[in-house]
């Protein structure tokens, strides 16, 4: 469904993405991980051209997104949902107005947009708060509205750029649960950049590990995190083992276990 070929991006003298190759099959949930600055966000943003690639192709349904003109790109973006790290909601608009806005701007009638926005807010468990303004919502609720805004277009592909990174740790879970549900029901093909290891282990069909702008390893979570073939994979394995051992001993020490 999505095939990224030879993708390259340089900022000044810094090579952020270096001839990256990556494919995602229909319905798959692929999680991209790797150290800070390895080019994850730049890659995901080049797919819908929030960042223009210097070279390479992004084939989606046999169309090269990098070669689309403005009108073609606008049409294509309706098929590709994008969830940002920052929620980017408009503070003077209610939750449902935020979700409706893109639909109405895309030419849909208010009635049609309202119906789709309501359904999308229902999918993220926000039907009780449709009239609240962003300032009245928690960070987790705001991000769920951000997810509904993408879902309202019924996208075939959803791109997630660190969707929990701006959240208080106590609110991360509610967003991960929504993402897990979407992955479970294959609501869309999902390409997710995240540092949430538990989500990657539990929900991803496939993990892609990046280092220095390129893919260094790809495989099932059970392969990549258990028998890693790359340096980055071994670092994640050690991190997971450390987290498991410290949580187990802490729980035992606190007599919770
Ligand atoms: N607009 C820009 N101008 C200059 N350098 C940039 C720009 N955007 C990203 N970079 C640099 O490109 C490299 C890759 O950045 P990117 O944000 O893609 O990394 P990342 O893997 O998503 O990191 P993180 O996990 O910290 O978000 C980094 O060295 C970053 O500083």
TrEMBL record:
Assigned GO CC terms: plasma membrane
UniProt keyword annotation of Transport present: yes
Lipid bilayer topology: Peripheral membrane protein
InterPro entries: AAA+_ATPase, ABC_transporter-like_ATP-bd, ABC_transporter-like_CS, MetN_ABC_transporter-like, P-loop_NTPase
Keyword terms, alphabetized: ATP-binding, Cell membrane, Hydrolase, Membrane, Nucleotide-binding, Transport
Major localisation: membrane
Domain ABC transporter as annotated: residue spans: 2-237
A GO term, aspect molecular function: ATP hydrolysis activity
Gene3D superfamilies the UniProt entry points to: P-loop containing nucleotide triphosphate hydrolases
Keyword Ribosomal protein: no
PANTHER family per UniProt: AMINO ACID IMPORT ATP-BINDING PROTEIN (PTHR43166), GLUTAMATE_ASPARTATE IMPORT ATP-BINDING PROTEIN GLTL (PTHR43166:SF9)
Name of the featured protein: L-cystine import ATP-binding protein TcyN
UniProt gene name: tcyN_3
